[in-house]
Amino acid sequence: MSYPNLLEPLDLGFTQLKNRVLMGSMHTGLEEEKGGFAKLAAFYAERAKGGVGLMVTGGISPNFRGRLYPHASQLSFSWQVKKHRLITDAVHAEGGKICMQILHAGRYGYHPLCVAPSAIKSPISKFKPKALSLGAIKSTVRDYARSAKLAQKAGYDGVEVMGSEGYFLNQFLCRHTNHRQDQYGGSLENRARLALEAVRAIRDEVGEQFILIFRLSMLDLVEGGNHWDEVLKLAKWLEQAGVTIINTGIGWHEARVPTIATSVPRAVFAGITERLRQHVSVPVIATNRINTPEIAEQILAGGQADMVSMARPLLADPHFVNKAAAGERADINVCIGCNQGCLDHTFKLKRATCLVNPFACYETDLFLPAAEKRQRVAVVGAGPAGMASACYAAERGFEVVLFEARAELGGQFNLAAQIPGKEEFQETLAYFRHRLEKFGVEVKLNCKASPDTLQGFDRVLLATGVTPRVPQFSGVERAVTYQQVLRGEVEVGRSVALVGAGGIGFDMAEYLSEPHESPTLHPQQWLAQWGIDLDYEENGGLTERHSSAFESAREIFLLQRKTTKPGAGLGKTTGWIHRAVLKDRGVNTLIGVSYHKLDEQGLHIERDGKAQCLAVDSVVLCAGQESNRSLADELDQHQIAYQLVGGADLAAELDAKRAIRQAADVVAAL
């Protein structure tokens, strides 16, 4: 399959981009690590080698008060230029281009010195900002210009000015956070004054032959956000002020609307960029949930944008562009939008990585060296850990046999892919299936490995996965497991009690409560569910949510032994979405539950010292899982050496990220 629009060069007049792919800004955490810039250089160089047309770094503050947190990166002084040179030299050596993003956090700054247009606390930071004085505003404009000039000296091909996602400039641009009464507040002209002054100051400082991107919030998704007419005016003013490209921003971080999670339909916001493109002459970039070359090509061929921004997809596969150009679509390791290794890590101040690509941000730490000796390796179990182990071992040059007791590859990922909003997991399964075939792994399905079948192998890796944990109470044999439900082995009634309110319990509650086909597969249904108005009848693009958001296919009770908040262990950046969906659908959440018995009357429980019976049709066990080590015990008896990988090693929650990373570590050490 060819992608002529995706691979077409883009002429910016003073420079040319070799294709229409922008690697969007993503903070990795390497920016603050000791020796992190050398690792960043390797990270970006790998993406440049992979064919990306233009990259944008993670956000770098123009001054101290604009930092995201006290030790976050800043570019304000000449002595800081040298470490940025490591990045630009590495990227240019691979034939790539890179811009530095200038990001002032504003009231999103997680420190007591944060500033904003008005002293209004953000819901995602515990620190109330100080309102900037007029003098401090003028100083901040100079800081933007100085940071851009230093970026130019460091060898960057341009800068991106962050004006979306609810950060500093976006805070000035919107009534939601700008309550000023001076020349920087009130009318749109006044609210836009700071952003335009910063852009003009940067352009004056760096000259005309330097890429200047402005990331404009085209859909705020917060009350008091801008109206479409205001967004359009801002874009035209930015064009006049000297920007080279306008990038799209969708939603503030505090917006209670998902914008990039896996449950968001692919390219659902591209129409907003298309609408703007009709009114400006500078190139515009579409973004959010663009993760395959087909989707990117469709956007560009349809005239919706001049470029597409992909950040996480290039974390998942640094060679995305080259593989698309070579017609190797099946070799692309597609981002599944899970956020588990990237944004969840970033917001915990951990180094980012990727669930499906554990080498991301570990380019200088994790390798798969060619095997010195061709050994025979047996991998038992074809879930994520087993498939990854088999692929990595084959890539190293080992002779690999993969044993799977069931009739299909995928293990728990096959079950996860059935949860509404997690359909993307099928992409990872397809990728691994292709890699197994490409590297000549011998796959034995419907084949239960035993000590006899594993004789004669040099190495044995057990990725036998997990079994559902069965809590002990009278009549528990009447219950069914989540695996039985998702495999279609049992029928579930109209009223259901879910025993366990961790990740499995939440997934099952969504699966069993969904009254229709997954909204992720139906963009208009999804937009109505979350109250998003792409026609912009109201400021911020919000509208009344459709009644379908509050429908449930079943009466559901989600039960938890602990008295802590249900779903506390869910993803930091996605957990709120799952909690919101279950709340919308009226799922009954009960904590501090003791289970007494299950009989024909229902599930007998106790809460706060009071006994009650839930007269439900079905009880589904979602109380976690245990490592499946039955084969390991047999191998111990036969004195056959092995290594445990994935859930067979550690069964705490369902963690494909940990399983795939462990597979890489184990195989790299063979």
TrEMBL record:
The record places domain FAD/NAD(P)-binding at: 376-635
- Could you list this entry's UniProt keywords, alphabetically sorted: Flavoprotein, FMN, Iron, Iron-sulfur, Metal-binding, Oxidoreductase
Task: Tell me the InterPro entries matching this sequence.
Answer: Aldolase_TIM (IPR013785), FAD/NAD-bd_sf (IPR036188), FAD/NAD-binding_dom (IPR023753), NADH:flavin_oxidoreductase (IPR051793), OxRdtase_FMN_N (IPR001155)
Q: Does the keyword Membrane apply?
A: no
Q: Which cofactor does it need?
A: FMN; [4Fe-4S] cluster
All copies of the NADH:flavin oxidoreductase/NADH oxidase N-terminal domain together span 6-327
Which CDD domains does the protein's record reference?
A: DCR_FMN
What family is this protein classified in?
In the N-terminal section; belongs to the NADH:flavin oxidoreductase/NADH oxidase family.
The protein in question is named NADPH-dependent 2,4-dienoyl-CoA reductase
Q: What is the lineage of its organism?
A: Bacteria, Pseudomonadati, Pseudomonadota, Gammaproteobacteria, Alteromonadales
